[in-house]
Amino acid sequence: MSAYGTGRRASWVRDLAMGVRFAAGGGREGWIRTALTALGVGLGVVLLLGAASVPHIMENRQQRSDARLPAGSSAQPAPSARTLVVTATDTTYRGDHISGLTLRPDGPAPARPPGVAEVPGPGEMVVSPALKDLLGSPEGALLRERLPFKTVGTIGAPGLRGPGELVYYAGRTAFPAGHTGDRITGFGQNTGTDPMPPLLVLLIIVACVVLLMPVAIFIATAVRFGGERRDRRLAALRLVGADSAMARRMAAGEALFGALCGLALGGALFLALRQLAGLVTVWDINAFPADVTPVPALAALVLTAVPVLAVAVTFVALRGVAIEPLGVVRNAEGRRRRLWWRLPLPFAGAALLLLSGGPQADGTLPHTNWITGGAVLFLIGITVLLPWLVEAAVARLRGGPVPWQLATRRLQLSSGAAVRAVSGITVAVAGAIALQLFFAAVQGEFVWSTGQDSGRAQLDVSLPAKDVATLRRMTGEFRATQGVRGVIATINGTAYGPGSQRDEGHIPTTPVTVGDCAALRELAHTGPCRAGDVFVAKEGSGMVVGADAGSSARPGARVVFHIDAATGEPAGRTRPWTVPESAREVRSRPDPMGRPDFGIFATPGALDPAALADPSARALIRVDPRVPDAAEHVRNTAARLDPMADVHALQDFSRDSQFASVRTGLLVGSTVTLALIAASMLVSTLEQLRERRRLLSVLMAFGTRRATLAWSVLWQTAVPVALGLALSVVGGIGLGIVLLRLVGRPVLTWSVIWPPVAAGAALVVLVTALSLPPLWRMMRPDGLRTE
Amino acid sequence: MTPPGALIEASALRKAYGPTPALDGADFSIHPGEVVAVMGPSGSGKSTLLHCLAGIIGPDSGTIRYDGRDLTVLRDGERSALRRAEFGFVFQFGQLVPELTCAENVALPLRLNGVRRTEAERQAQEWLERLEVDEVAGKRPGEVSGGQGQRVAVARALVSRPRVVFADEPTGALDSLNGERVMDLLTDAARASGTAVVLVTHEARVAAYSDREVVVRDGVAREVAAAA
């Protein structure tokens, strides 16, 4: 190392240290500035550390989820001291999923689910803390009816994916008739995770970039808080002999101190907030504090990158500032923002994205680094284009009323702070538009229509049944349930015909549906129907799918309901039943589940369901949406009829679970990022107001109306925001098109670009509204007092 | 004793900032067209007196009458309107709006009073010429010298033809030559238009431009006997 090199390094260290001392010992003003910077950086650091914890959170949730899965095998194990018979008894309460497992131990030492100290005895249950709270609260009254077990314990963290999860294990001596359950030897499976489709991987990469870029911008903005006062102080240092480079290094030292304070504050806030992680549920996700632990490598990256960013940003920011020994610092004369180096950045980003090649035919996504780099470069390009755009646009603004003139002149003189305040939202909206375009184009591959018609019925209840009495009881109870407007109740079984293929190993079968005329009309175009009628329902094509129409589903066909499973021959005591010659052939109609029912449709007067083998009762229920908790009342009725009744809510659409997870993750991230951007804009606005407090006081002393000043502040924010949102629309569409070209999909809809723009605009309105009270307080002429 | 016909008449003003009293029973008066210097050492309360007289802040007790109206009972909006229409201000560092040109700064009080932009800027140009700084009309405050900036501030204070100009250390940041020029222009223009000037200063040289001197010490204002 040369002496020059050593000397240069020493002067760097000395000047940075001096800057740190100025920031630390700068009196009240200095501390306010450092506090603002630390707050800004700290908020960003909290978010970055939170993002760095996501892999741990997801991994631990998955591990605990796997650990409580019943350990099964294809062959049922023999009963032993450790084995249990289990059946899933999940339910839903006011939109929240409740995982339930009913257990019946075979012996004295049954395997215990994770987090459970003792397997609950008959009539008892152990519950998660969140479920315990819910059951103990007035809000859980309806759920208490459904789970009439005595709570004897609480499930510990090892048995829960998150602290807010609703889980229970209930004990029984026997299962209700018709329910057999599965015998298991213990708990824990290694399900592994299905590899993500490359489309989703691409989506996740871009989403991470889109969500974290505003955070980086926010941190970069925060380290420049109070820059004007700092520059004046540096000018004074120039007067006593500091050269320009030294002044810049001292400025960097001040920023470094703020960033280090921010790191400390962010770390402390992160540690404090992670204790509250279990209390907050965002889009159905919550986590144990212990899970919220950053991946060490990512945490190290944050700890290193933030101070480096602080120093780098300060040097870049001071490029356009001439720190002179006398007077206040002035922007270097005639230094206009240049387009030539800004414009290529988004194009370079787009090129990098396209060159990555995207997902390959073999289902892989090579060059993920190129994709990350391309997305980052594109969004950085948007960020650096914004100051140029604002400068170029406001330079053309002239005249107007006083507030407009004050605002536009301010932006013409120095738009940097205003632009910095909105650059985060610009990038976030641009990224969100791109992601929305991408989502809209690919969601057809991950979201599909179920064929269910939630307009005709909202709940589908299945339970074992054996006779007409069950059918009548079920129908009656559901019809009497609060909020129920219609019930399609049937009992279903199977009829076996003596078909010609029996000898070839194929037994002709026909579904049998027993229900009253009102129910049968919902499932087939029966026309006139009376008690005692029988119908043969066919599909539109005239076929009875899956049945041998000629032998089992035709008027006059002889069928049996019980057969010997081994031989396929009619079981000993069964008596054949003949489809009446009077049975009319009718066209089937899809039920609300979207399934075309077909086969033999009989009213109870014609066929006693007790004759069927293993019949099941089914009710499709329509509820009145205006009646609160109507669905919960239905579920409670179902639980009363059969504690293990399967209740399914109809959904018109279904989503791929991985796609749904990515979308949920994006919503969580967007919510947190938008909150940070709001905080960032608010702090930036307050900082700008603080810098101009004395000028505001002078203007007030002239008798300037507060409304005049408020409007000028509003315009000063609104103009860059409008330009930023316009740029984000163009940039977002550009990035979206590039991403879609990468995966070979066309843009399906343009309407999705507006919600992010609206969200961005709403955020700005919110922040502006929040900044008005402090603005009002600062607009006092007594701010002139200096002594 | 206040002479009859006073434009501003204040009596027994008290004002404290926390435990620190700034004014402690101060009396003051000024007549139309009169230039009164308020003198005193740093921290004596002279700026606080000026701020109270101008309705910028309210006293804790005492009365201030302007043209027969009690300033202390006026609401904030009414005091703002009064300052906008009847008062002008010059501060130590000019306190020009940095983003506006000098001409726009001078035109600002007129525009706040609803005068159209072209007319306001025409009048501003006249005042800039009168104060011999018309050459900086299109420049921003950051691009002009301290003396020029202060003359622009004087033009801004006088452009709306106020009945009173409040000048708080108007030459405090200027060298003696520039200070004298600013004072010449301010007092000449004020006298020519019949504008009263409340001139806060700690420099006897500046106070010499006044018709009368009031000394504030420990929050109490006392009139200095006129020199023979």
Extract low-pLDDT stretches of chain B: none
Q: Biggest interface and which pair forms it?
A: A-B, 28 and 33 residues
Give the percentage of residues in beta strands of chain A.
5-15%
| Form type of chain B | globular
- CATH architecture grouping of chain B: 3-Layer(aba) Sandwich
Helix content of chain A: 40-55%
Count of runs of 4 or more consecutive helical residues of chain B: 7
Structural class of chain A: alpha+beta
Tally of helical runs of chain A = 19
Widest sheet: strand ordering of chain B: 6-7-8-3-9-10
The helicity of chain B comes to: 25-40%
End-to-end separation of chain A in angstroms reads: 52 Å
Organism (chain B): Streptomyces natalensis ATCC 27448
Domain ABC transporter (chain B): 8-228
InterPro entries (chain B): AAA+_ATPase (IPR003593), ABC_transporter-like_ATP-bd (IPR003439), ABC_transpr_LolD-like (IPR015854), MacB-like_ATP-bd (IPR017911), P-loop_NTPase (IPR027417)
GO molecular function (chain B): ATP binding; ATP hydrolysis activity; transmembrane transporter activity
What is this structure's SSE topology?
The complex is a heterodimer of chains A (787) and B (228).
Chain A: H1 3-24, H2 27-67, E1 70-71, E2 84-88, E3 91-93, E4 96-105, E5 124-127, H3 129-136, H4 141-146, E6 150-154, E7 166-171, E8 182-184, E9 186-187, H5 198-222, H6 227-239, H7 244-275, H8 296-317, E10 321-322, E11 330-331, H9 344-355, H10 368-394, H11 402-413, H12 416-442, E12 447-449, E13 459-464, H13 468-479, E14 484-496, E15 509-514, H14 517-523, E16 534-538, E17 558-559, E18 577-578, E19 584-587, E20 599-602, E21 616-623, H15 630-641, E22 646-649, E23 653-655, H16 657-691, H17 693-701, H18 706-742, H19 754-778
Helix pairs in contact in A: 1-7, 2-5, 2-7, 2-8, 2-16, 5-10, 5-12, 5-16, 6-7, 7-8, 9-10, 9-18, 10-12, 10-18, 11-18, 12-16, 12-18, 12-19, 16-19, 18-19
Chain B: E1 8-17, E2 20-30, E3 35-39, H1 46-53, E4 61-66, E5 69-70, H2 76-86, E6 87-90, H3 102-112, H4 117-130, H5 146-158, E7 164-168, H6 176-192, E8 196-200, H7 204-207, E9 212-217, E10 220-223
Parallel strand pairs in B: 3-8, 3-9, 6-7, 7-8
Antiparallel strand pairs in B: 1-2, 1-4, 4-5, 9-10
Helix pairs in contact in B: 3-4, 3-5, 4-5, 5-6
